[in-house]
């Protein structure tokens, strides 16, 4: 089982810092994928990165987070945060796990996150479509993970290092070519001799420098022979 992931959405830097600090103190295994301060970026990264948990401030610079709920393409565990208790009843009426009133109480925070983690675990148990999973053999166990949690695969001689969305890495005794054949039907593209990437985690493609920029601002080189193929794949993905 991989670590859980989250996104923190709040237009106040201090509020985002407090949530991250509370996570570091009590839930260090939860990886913060992004911190965003507006609803446009929130919806973009929630749907792109698909974190299991979303900390979502209700009122941000005149916008209301309830307005984006129907546009989220999957079912994350949402924990609302708000400085206004008038939103409490409305929050309870949604499918959110809980809501936290600012200033956030640490005990209430821990209870809410534990509830979210239980919800995440139940969702993982209920996901029975093995076509969307892959096995990763290690020295002691065989891990079963969701394919869409793989961000990229990097060649290492006759081995391949898998990089997951939670930040973990796994070195597997299979070639990158083998993974290319296995994952090409799941939005993965071989962009370089050493790199196979999940197109869903790409933020942009720098044509001039032949670089793919991922959601976490890391960059990957694109072989010149793969430039046109990469552009076409990204356009097809955006139009699908």
Verbal overview:
The chain is α/β, with parallel strands linked by helices and 240 residues long. It folds into 2 domains: 5-126, Response regulator (Rossmann fold); 130-239, LytTr DNA-binding domain (OB fold (Dihydrolipoamide Acetyltransferase, E2P)). The protein is built from 6 helices and 17 strands. The strands form 5 sheets. The chain has a 5-stranded parallel beta sheet, sandwiched between helices. The chain has a 5-stranded antiparallel beta sheet with strand order 12-11-10-14-13. The chain has a 3-stranded antiparallel beta sheet with strand order 15-16-17, with no helix packed on it. α1 links the parallel β1 (5-9) and β2 (31-36). It starts with a strand and ends with a helix. The mean pLDDT is 89.
Mean pLDDT: 89
CATH class category name of the largest domain: Alpha Beta
- Radius of gyration from the alpha-carbon trace, in angstroms: 19 Å
Uncertain residue ranges = none
- Supply the number of structural domains: 2
The CATH architecture of the largest domain: 3-Layer(aba) Sandwich
Strand order of the largest sheet: 2-1-3-6-7
Percentage of residues assigned to helices: 25-40%
Would you give the CATH topology of the largest domain? Rossmann fold
The profile of the biggest β sheet is:
5 strands, parallel
Spatial shape: globular
Number of helices: 6
């Amino acid at each position: 089982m991989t670590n859980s992931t989250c996104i923190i959405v709040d237009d106040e830097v201090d509020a985002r810092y407090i949530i991250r600090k509370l996570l570091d103190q009590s839930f260090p295994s939860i990886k913060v994928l992004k911190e965003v301060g507006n609803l446009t970026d929130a919806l973009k990264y929630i749907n792109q990165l698909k974190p299991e948990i979303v900390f979502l401030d209700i009122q941000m610079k005149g916008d209301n987070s309830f307005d984006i709920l129907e546009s989220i393409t999957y079912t994350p565990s949402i924990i609302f945060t708000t400085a206004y208790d008038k939103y409490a009843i409305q929050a309870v009426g949604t499918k959110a796990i809980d809501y936290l009133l600012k200033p956030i109480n640490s005990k209430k925070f821990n209870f809410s996150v534990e509830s979210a983690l239980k919800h995440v675990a139940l969702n993982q148990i209920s996901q029975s479509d093995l076509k969307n999973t892959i096995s990763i053999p290690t020295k002691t166990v065989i891990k079963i993970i969701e394919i869409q949690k793989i961000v990229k695969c990097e060649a290492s001689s006759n081995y391949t290092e898998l990089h997951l969305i939670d930040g973990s890495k796994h070195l597997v005794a299979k070639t990158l070519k083998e993974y290319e054949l296995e994952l090409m039907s799941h939005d993965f593209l071989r962009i370089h001799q050493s790199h196979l990437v999940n197109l869903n985690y790409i933020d942009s493609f720098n044509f001039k420098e032949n670089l793919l920029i991922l959601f976490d601002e890391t960059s990957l080189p694109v072989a010149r022979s793969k430039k046109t193929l990469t552009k076409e794949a990204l356009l097809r993905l955006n139009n699908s």
